[in-house]
């Protein structure tokens, strides 16, 4: 009986290489199929813009693929786990390893090591690539796939309240007094909350105080008249500091930048439960890949000739997908304030870690 956590070096490399190859293969298939379906549904919107062509489709694919990789890499690890373990079981390799004195945990150790490296890669990939791609893609979608905004600090679909009046912008860029908004709409409301005036503008910049609208079209509700003033100033109660804190997109901000944003929100007395839950999930989310070999381990053991191998594979797949369902539900509850942020991000991981260990120990150890 061996007391080392890992089997021999040769066996560890053999299992790790086999597992890694299947992860890459499953990820390639999933991303290829989903990217084709995504292009089928969005290519019409992209090509509807004058001047857009094959280059813009490739740009869209380049921005979308990192999101697909980040989202479906844990699923790829789960599917690769099941394929690898079922293959080892059918070829009686698991029986040979257990006959040599290896425990169930030692058989799984190379897979857990590989999955742990995948989790580290996922975290780094999310922070360095996915956040930037998400920020650019959302800004591009905000302008209906027109010219891609080149400004820094872009945020899409901004909504601001100024004493009952509403200012919306398709996107804004910059910080402080250098903020510039595009595709702006100002809704002026009376004391009863009814809209009395709607002003659409191509651009808005800070006028200290207020925001100067350019390219204006104004519609007065009571008289049903439309005019085009040269410029207007609205939202004098809105400051650049308020707009900087108006919207934080946790998917488009890296971990350390989101940490600073949460601190600024808290110093301003704003609610941060949703952002805290997403902050914790930036760590627990990538770790889901590490959990998949443990949840799929039920497919590795038991006699292949007993007729229960298929049932075991289904159980492993059900455990894996149940984790993703519970994880998404808990994160949604955390966003609404139903769960504390830490519990919303970590409870599913810890729960299914215990479930996977319990199933493995009760059935095989």
UniProtKB/TrEMBL annotation:
Q: List GO BP terms, alphabetically.
A: lipopolysaccharide transport; transmembrane transport
Membrane-crossing segments per the record: 20-40, 72-88, 108-125, 283-303, 309-326, 338-356
Is Transferase among this UniProt entry's keywords? Answer: no
Keyword annotations for this protein, in alphabetical order, are: Cell membrane, Membrane, Transmembrane, Transmembrane helix
Q: Which InterPro entries does this UniProt record tie to the protein?
A: LptG (IPR030923), LptG/LptF_permease (IPR005495)
Where does this one sit in the cell?
A: Cell membrane
Q: Which GO terms describe its cellular component?
A: ATP-binding cassette (ABC) transporter complex
Major site of localization recorded for this protein: membrane
Q: Which Pfam families match?
A: LptF_LptG
Q: How is it placed in the membrane, per its record?
A: Multi-pass membrane protein
Family matches, as NCBIfam families: LptG_lptG
What name appears for this protein in its UniProt entry? LPS export ABC transporter permease LptG
Organism of provenance: Erythrobacter aureus
Q: Which gene underlies this protein?
A: lptG
């Amino acid at each position: 009986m061996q007391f080392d956590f890992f089997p021999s070096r040769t066996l560890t490399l053999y299992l790790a290489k086999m597992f890694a190859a299947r992860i890459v293969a499953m990820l390639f298939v999933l991303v290829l199929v989903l990217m084709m379906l995504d292009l089928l549904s969005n290519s019409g919107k992209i090509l509807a813009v004058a001047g857009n062509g094959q280059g813009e489709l490739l740009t869209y694919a380049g921005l979308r693929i990192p999101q697909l990789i980040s989202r479906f890499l844990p699923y790829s690890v789960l599917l690769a786990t099941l394929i690898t373990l079922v293959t080892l079981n059918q070829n009686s390799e698991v029986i040979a390893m257990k006959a040599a004195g290896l425990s169930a945990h030692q058989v799984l150790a190379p897979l857990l090591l590989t999955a742990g490296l995948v989790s580290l890669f996922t975290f780094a990939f999310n922070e360095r690539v996915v956040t930037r791609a998400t920020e650019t893609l959302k800004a591009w979608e905000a302008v209906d796939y027109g010219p891609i905004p080149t400004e820094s600090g872009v945020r899409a679909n901004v909504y601001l309240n100024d004493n009952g009046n509403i200012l919306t912008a398709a996107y804004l860029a910059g910080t402080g007094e250098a903020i510039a908004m595009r595709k702006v709409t100002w809704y002026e409301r009376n004391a009863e909350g009814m809209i009395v005036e709607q002003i659409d503008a191509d651009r808005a910049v800070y006028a200290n105080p207020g925001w100067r609208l350019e390219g204006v079209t104004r519609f007065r509700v009571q008289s049903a008249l439309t005019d085009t003033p040269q410029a207007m100033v609205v939202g004098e109660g809105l400051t650049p500091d308020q707009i900087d804190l108006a919207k934080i997109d946790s998917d488009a901000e890296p971990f350390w930048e989101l940490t600073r944003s949460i601190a600024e929100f808290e110093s301003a007395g704003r609610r941060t439960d949703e952002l805290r839950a997403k902050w914790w999930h930036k760590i627990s989310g990538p770790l889901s890949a590490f959990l998949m070999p443990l949840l799929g381990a039920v497919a590795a053991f038991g006699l292949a000739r007993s007729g229960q191998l298929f049932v075991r594979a289904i159980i492993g797949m059900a455990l894996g997908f149940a984790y993703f369902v519970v994880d998404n539900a808990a994160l949604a509850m955390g966003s609404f304030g139903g769960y504390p942020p830490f519990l919303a991000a970590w409870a599913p991981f810890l729960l299914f870690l215990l479930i996977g260990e319990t199933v493995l120990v009760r059935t095989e150890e």
